[in-house]
Amino acid sequence: MEKRRFGKTGFRVSVLGFGAAGSGLKAAPLTTVERLLGKARDSGLNVIDTAPCYGESEELIGRAAQCWRKHFYILTKCGHAAGLDFADWTPGLIEKSIERSLKRLRTDYLDVVQLHSCGEAELRQVDLVAALKRAQDKGMTRYVGYSGDGRAAFYAAHCGAFETLQISINLADQEAIDLVLPVAIEHDLGVIAKRPIANAAWLGLNFIRPNRRAYWRRLRKLGYDFLRSDQRRTLETALRFTLSVPGVHTAIVGTTKPARLEQNAALVERSLEHSQYHEIRTRWRQVASPEWVGLK
User: Fold this and answer.
1) Could you tell me the pTM of the whole model?
2) Alpha-carbon gap, residue 158 to 290, rounded angstroms
3) How much is the pLDDT for 55?
């Protein structure tokens, strides 16, 4: 699988990564997670993204991947107490949250810890960012990042505090391409695309979570021709579009089905044609409304 330089970190990350959010991983038995991560490794994936608030995912990943630690870059998040006796977005929480993640993930260090979907006001709290940097100085994490969207992501990209950035980029969520990515490229940030297939919203409202209905409504207005093709071609176009966006290094997709993960790995073996990428972006510029901002 293609590997890309992950910004100033110097990591060589696979263009496809495994994301634990919304994948159903918290309900999966350990044997399924072991098979899933084994298939990920065999398919060339080397990025795992999780968070303390994704159910039992950190524990399951820690147990399943402990023998393969050197094969994966492990990314997690902090900021939400998620059961710890601290208020969200407080300096005292940061180190305790990272300590818990290290224990759950059964590792001596994390590759990236990201502040998890806070707003710009929290990002401007000097003591909060300083707490994250202290954890980095202690070797608890190799790099620090931000996961979020909109103006907060724009601030995170140019403030100089972070080495990585995780943002929503897909057919139905293109604000970051113009607002955030030029700054991320300028600052040589490692960029992770979340929701790279727009939650497969083209399948209809019965197939997506209620808080992603915005994607379904946007895709209806965008009316891309390929959305009327067979599901595999639509999925292929969606994933390849996200990975064709300049500045994107890896796209994280969640699943509990090893076969689906293998299928996705095959889909990214080829790039989207430049003409189709241009058509998708042109249609977005013609149709997108100002309120079509990045979804958290």
Assistant:
1) 0.95
2) 22
3) 80
